[in-house]
Write a structure and sequence with these properties.
0% strand, mainly alpha, single chain, globular, 258 residues
């Protein structure tokens, strides 16, 4: 009984905003202290793994009957890559936004700013290298075959249908929601599957822009010649990165005043 009461006391404390804030900040401090090599390989693994989202979306696209509900079914594939990344504790750029920012603001200094910028830069570059590799394999048909590639291309065409400004605006809620995963999981680790699935499915059906998953789509279209590399980078990738950062920072701003 004493152990049960103690567990309940810990659980009740775990839901306190200050406790959550401290837990996420400590996680961020741990990540900021990791060597560059460790961050890079974890980020590369995340870039490779998150590409599973496009594979799953393409598979659902191929087998779902055309109609009004097709997008809802197709979007069920979107969480797959995120589940692999989050459950595998890999470094994903958007999820790192808030965890890296909390220690910086808690104890601001030039050294803290450097460590935060280093983490973001290393993880972002590693993520994009991973998605570029996977998209090249998809484009060649080496993974998924010709039918799988065509389905993934069909899913990816939304990238060329949006202006850079629209992409940036749609990236704001995506950055907010993905940063919220890090915050939410500190209080719901046992429900991690449901938390990640629900949030990322919302990103998909809301047609929000996520820089890393979207880079798989943009790079795929660039590899097959539908768009140029410049269009992929400046038309989608940069606006999405900026929007995701602002969205994640917006979540931090709200939590900092909670």
């Amino acid at each position: 009984m004493a152990d049960d009461d103690q567990d309940q006391g810990v659980a009740s404390k775990a839901i306190e905003p200050k406790q959550l804030h401290r837990a996420v900040r400590r996680e961020g401090e741990d990540e900021l202290g990791r060597p560059v090599q460790s961050l890079f390989w974890s980020g590369l693994a995340a870039g490779l793994a998150v590409s599973a989202s496009l594979v799953a979306e393409g598979a659902f696209h191929r087998h779902a009957a055309p109609g009004p509900g097709r997008a809802l079914i197709e979007s069920l594939g979107y969480p797959f890559g995120f589940l692999i990344v989050v459950m595998g504790r890999m470094q994903l750029f958007t999820e790192s936004t808030i965890t890296a920012m909390l220690p910086l603001v808690h104890r601001p200094s030039w050294w803290a700013l450097w460590r935060t910028a280093r983490l973001w830069a290393v993880v972002l570059c590693a993520n994009l290298i991973g998605t570029a590799i996977m998209s090249a394999l998809f484009a060649s048909g080496a993974l998924g075959g010709a039918e799988g590639r065509d389905a993934m291309v069909a899913v990816s065409r939304v990238v060329v249908e949006r202006s850079p400004a629209e992409t940036l605006v749609r990236a704001l809620p995506a950055g907010f929601l993905l940063a919220a995963i890090a915050w939410t999981l500190s209080n719901a680790r046992q429900q991690a599957f449901l938390v990640v699935f629900a949030i990322t499915y919302l990103v998909a059906i809301g047609e929000f822009s996520h820089s890393i998953v979207g880079s798989v789509e943009a790079f795929l279209l660039a590899w097959i010649g539908t768009i140029t590399v410049g269009e992929a980078v400046f038309g989608f990738l940069l606006p999405a990165i900026i929007g995701n950062l602002i969205g994640g920072a917006g979540l931090f701003a709200l939590l900092a005043h909670a």
